[in-house]
Design goal:
The protein has helices at residues 7-27, 46-61, 68-72, 85-103, 144-157, 175-182, 185-188, 196-230, 232-237, 246-262, 268-306, 312-339, 344-350, 355-361, 363-378, 449-465, 499-520, 548-560, and strands at 120-125, 128-134, 140-142, 190-191, 194-195, 386-389, 392-399, 403-408, 413-417, 426-428, 435-443, 475-481, 486-494. The chain is of the alpha+beta class. A hairpin with a 2-residue loop joins strand 4 and strand 5 (194-195).
Length: 561
């Protein structure tokens, strides 16, 4: 299936993803606060919570960015959607630090160290309060009302001088806060949910993403065409090989949008919808790109396998390709679920109730898998071999991890589970190095011994001169006196790769034998009964004695001609 994205298609895709994002945002599960049997020491009192927050933020300024998780842990983000909780939490932590620094220096000795009691208020503002409250599980956190009011409180104290010495928070503040402070007032004016500068930022981010998408497509196509010049056979196997990396541009575009919208400081409902849509697009594009790369790599491996004499790799390439695609599909589902903050562990834990039933159902699957491994390791047969399994005879058409398909000689398709090959007796006719031919040529009883000797020697010479016949072992002798003929045993072997070649060379040998018999005057007998009445007859004009060398020369002339 070919995918062609035009402007209208891209717009529809974006709108569809936004709609899906809105629906996912509404249905996103709210993770309840986990109740722990003991309260962490870092959050056991208002003083401990404030100290944890300030020490973590100061450590970040000293070059320890991993401490941001400890700072965010002091905020009650239960009202923030899990899909944007991480990104929103980091922004709110820096907002809170800026509010504290522009209000007054925090004296930890004056912060209460009680483990129970009423909330402790740091400061009251027109837009709200900065307050630490004890939750039901015993933790003291900056409560959700404080978290919700932080953007407005920060605007309120933005013009105040910092009351805390040391390094300024300016370089660590979120980009949208620093940018907003330098913009003129008309760009800060709110129009249709967002401020004017945020609308302009969205437009710029979308434009940059689309341009990078087109540029990535062009570069990927040029690089693929250059690569295909080295491997022209791959292009024959994949019709649109130069467009295989089309999803790479979509992945790059989605990544630019993903990073860009995080810098705009969008309101939570808008950020939630856009971020879910962009995460979904990025995840699908990444999985799609990996899927396409597997097709290209499989075509290259198949071309390499076709140039080798070993036929096992011809079977392994499709298996490897199918295994990689299954892995990508499963990994893609987990990747998408992780980006959308879907709790996969809960789903896996729920499957534990049906684990026994699943294990019983998977017994055949495991047996078939080990059966396929047994066939591959033992090289029992491969695709194209003529095999006989019990009462089934035919040519192997396909080998998979679960089953093997055999095309019978009456053109039906038989599917055999691979578990059967663990114990079954497999007669691989296709693995024969030599293909035997055993027959008896019957000549008439009136054939003189000299002609029989010459005919046998001529047949031996045909074998010696034949390009596909085994030279080191064959038997051609006058073997028996039959009921209606003098029988000559023909016991020869062909060294041919397949049955078609064997039939062709058998045809050639038999015609050469007929030509030799005609040249030597040897007649083949019919299985009939004949009554002979003796009477005088003129002698046969053909010579009774034939020289052996003459027979060899006649045989060479027949084979070469």
């Amino acid at each position: 299936m070919k995918f062609r994205f035009r402007r209208s298609s891209l717009l529809l895709l974006i709108l569809g993803l936004f709609a899906f994002g809105a629906a996912a945002a509404e249905k996103a599960p709210q993770k309840p606060q986990e109740k722990t049997p003991s309260v962490p020491a870092a959050l056991e009192s208002p003083r401990a919570t404030m100290a944890t927050f300030l020490h973590a933020m100061n450590d970040i300024k000293r070059g320890k960015p991993e401490r941001i998780a400890d700072a965010v842990s002091t905020l009650d983000l239960s009202q923030v959607n899990p899909l944007v909780r991480k990104e929103r939490g980091e922004d709110l932590a820096w907002m809170l630090l800026e509010v504290l620094d522009r209000t007054r220096a925090v004296d930890l000795k004056r912060v209460p160290n009680r483990k129970k009691g009423r909330p402790w208020v740091f400061e009251r503002y027109r837009s709200g309060e900065v307050r630490i409250r004890r939750l039901d599980d015993g933790r003291w956190l900056f409560d959700r009302e404080t978290v919700a009011a932080l953007p407005a409180i920060l605007d309120e104290v933005a013009n105040r001088e910092a009351k805390v010495g040391g390094k300024s928070n300016e370089q660590w503040l979120p980009l949208h806060i620093r940018l907003q402070r330098r913009l003129p007032e008309w760009l800060k004016h709110r129009t249709l949910i967002l401020q004017n500068w945020q609308w302009l930022g969205l437009l710029l981010i979308i434009a940059v993403g689309v341009v990078l998408d087109k540029l990535a497509q062009a570069l990927a196509r040029a690089g693929m065409r250059q690569w295909l010049r080295r491997f022209p056979e791959v292009k024959k196997r994949i019709a649109d090989a130069d467009r295989r990396l089309r999803p790479l541009g979509l992945a790059l575009m989605a990544f630019v949008w993903w990073v860009g919208i995080l810098f705009l400081g969008l309101p939570e409902p808008v950020l939630l919808v856009l971020l879910v849509a962009v995460k979904l697009l990025a995840s699908i594009a990444a999985v799609w790109t990996a899927w396409r790369l597997v097709d290209v790599i499989s075509a290259l491996l198949a071309e390499k396998a076709a140039t080798t004499d070993n036929r096992v790799d011809d079977v392994l390439v499709p298996m490897v390709s199918r295994t990689l695609k299954i892995f990508i599909a499963v990994g893609g589902v987990v990747f998408v679920a992780d980006n959308l903050n879907i709790d996969v562990t809960g789903l896996l834990a729920g499957l534990g109730l049906g684990g026994l039933a699943f294990a019983l159902a998977a017994t055949d699957l495991v047996q078939n898998f080990f059966g396929s491994i047994t066939v591959l390791l033992d090289r029992t047969f491969t695709v194209g071999d003529w095999i006989i399994v019990d009462d089934i005879e035919g040519t192997v058409e396909h080998m998979g991890f679960r089953s093997t398909r055999i095309r019978t000689f009456y053109n039906s398709l038989v599917t055999i589970p691979n578990s059967r090959f663990i114990t079954a007796e497999v007669d691989n006719m296709g693995a024969r190095r030599y293909r035997r031919y055993k027959q008896k040529f019957g000549v008439t009883y009136d054939t003189p011994p000299e002609k029989i000797e010459a005919f046998c020697e001529g047949l031996r010479e045909i074998v010696r001169q034949h390009p596909y016949m085994r030279k080191d072992y064959f038997q051609i002798w006058f073997n028996d006196l039959g009921a209606s003929a003098l029988e000559i045993l023909i016991y020869v072997f062909w060294e041919t790769p397949d049955w078609t070649t064997e039939l062709r060379e058998r045809h050639r040998f038999l015609l050469d034998a007929l030509r030799l018999a005609d040249a030597l005057g040897v007649e083949f007998a019919f299985p009939t009964q004949t009554i002979h009445l003796y009477q005088e007859s003129p002698p046969d004009e053909r010579p009774l004695a034939v020289d052996l060398e003459q027979a060899r020369q006649t045989a060479r002339r027949i084979v070469q001609g």
